[in-house]
Amino acid sequence: KPFYLPNREDPHIRKEHYISKFTISFPRLVSMVVTLREWAHKSLQEEEERPDSFLERFRGPELQIAPSRISIIDSECCMACFDDLQTRNFILWLVLDYLSDVIYILDTCVRLRTGFLEQGLLVKDLTKLRESYFHAMQFKLDLLSILPTDLAYIAIGIHVPELRFNLLMRFSRLFEFFDRSETRTSYPNIFRICNLVLYILVIIHWNACIYFAISKSLGFGSDQWVYPNISDPEFGTLTRGYVYCLYWSTLTLTTIGEVPAPVHDEEYFFAVFDFLFGVLIFATIVGNVGAMISNMNATRAEFQAQIDAIKHYMKFRKVSKELEARVIKWFDYLWTNKKAIDAQDVLKNLPNKLRAEIAINVHLDTLKKVRIFQDCEAGLLVELVLKLRPQVFSPGDYICRKGDIGKEMYIIKEGHLAVVADDGVTQFAHLTAGSCFGELSILNIKGSKIGNRRTANIRSIGYSDLFCLSKDDLMEAVMEYPDAKKALEERGRRTLDLSVFKKQTNKQTKTSRLLQMFYSTFMKRYQSSFISTVMLRSHDLNLTVCRFM
């Protein structure tokens, strides 16, 4: 039997054996993959210009070159170890081999015309581009990778794929491609996991090829450790040979073991090296996957910590169950609708210019819907959009009450609000997305009878998302724009006068209507009384006339 498991008859012992191998405590070692990446970065002296987007990167020549590099890394090693690949479909392998040469030459030509940044400016001069590329370490590696080493086939023989190992000199470009692509993708954690899996598969593939080559040099079937005799039909096919070696390599590098014990010294050395190398790979997998999972769940863990702290506080302070349920539902709404992220905390590392551009792109149209801010200076609008703060209100929450001191104005982003009476039930008006209120209360308008007090009760019907601008933030922003401040106060005064005029007009209209109704009612009653009196007197007169007759 090519593989053997000790204590196969006792599954409990075998299970403990597997667990013991997986639970061995090792200090976290430096990842082999990270070491290779650092080596690749040291060989690159010039920084190229990055495309504008992740899709542009994949639409460029790198999309065609990257898979070819991966295939060359696998195929060259595989051809050197498995003889069947050299004898079967040999013409196909030659075509693929020289096709790779063509792609590498095209890549070199593209590199000669690839711009780079110098003191923050994009260099496009072809002479400088060539000089920069020729003096870079990457050019030397690229030149070695396209050397016509296959000319040695004439003297040595055609079945020597080891001569084409110079193609692996571009291995560092693969790391460069992955690093740049990782910064472009919208799913970096998934990309890192796939990247790590690819590295592990390539290493397992290489190790399987080396194992097959050692077995070939020692003799197939010469002992229990090497690959079984290929004269056996069961192990004589190329597919079985590769799958067997891949399985052996996977068991060894994942520190599972359970493979036949070595016999010769060469086998012992290779087995020891594989086990030590497997420890590094296992540490790499555990460390990288653990870090990726932590990064993926970092936002959720932080949000859950806030909820737990609030729950503990409400329990300690013996808050009512009804209020506690409202708080929990509010948190659930934030997380379900992706509103738990603090925009200020996310954008704090950006320079002020980029932060302002993002804020303008997100909030400027919303701010322009406010009547008093229409036709304002662009600089003032930029200052104001940076000071907008999102707020979320639960169903039944009062945004403001009549008579309260107004310190903020609100712009409705999503949701429905209602202007209600003092009883909180009767609705006078309905506010939807795009509406705003409270803008007059944050302006110090001279001569205003109501001052900065609220004039209505506004209540949230469901969950509502609002943008809030405080009075202090507005005053701080208009300090540098005195003309804009006067214009805002003037617009606010006109709006207030118009509102007062409408109220007075409505009041006068109501008064006139009441007077008209009173006059109409009075006239109807007077007319009815007059007619009754006339008829009564006429009747009395008729009676008197009858008596005299």
Structural write-up:
- Helix content is 60%, strand content 8%.
- It has 549 residues and is α+β, with helices and mostly antiparallel strands.
- The protein folds into 3 domains: 66-186; 187-341, Helix Hairpins; 350-503, Jelly Rolls, CATH 2.60.120.10.
- The strands form 3 sheets. Strands 3-10-5-8 form a 4-stranded antiparallel beta sheet. The protein has a 4-stranded antiparallel beta sheet with strand order 4-9-6-7, with no helix packed on it. A two-stranded antiparallel ribbon has the order 1-2.
- A hairpin with a 2-residue loop joins strand 1 (116-118) and strand 2.
- The chain is elongated.
- It starts with 10 loop residues before the first helix and ends with a helix.
- The model is unreliable at 1-9, 17-37 and 39-73 (pLDDT under 50).
Characteristic terms for this protein:
549 residues; alpha+beta; Helix Hairpins; Jelly Rolls; four-stranded antiparallel β-sheet; 10 strands; 60% helix; elongated
Strand segment count: 10
CATH level 1 class label of the largest domain: Mainly Alpha
Q: Approximately how much beta-strand content do the residues carry?
A: 5-15%
Give me the CATH architecture of the largest domain, please.
Orthogonal Bundle
Main pleated sheet: 4 strands, antiparallel
Low-confidence stretches: 1-9, 17-37, 39-73
* Strand order in the sheet with the most strands: 3-10-5-8
CATH fold-level topology of the largest domain: Helix Hairpins
N-to-C CA distance = 152 Å
Number of domains: 3
Shape: elongated
Spatial extent as radius of gyration: 41 Å
SSE-based structural type: alpha+beta
Number of helices: 20
Could you state the order of secondary-structure elements as H and E? HHHHHHEEHHHHHHHHHHHHEEEEEEEEHH
Helix content: 55-70%
Average of per-residue pLDDT values: 76
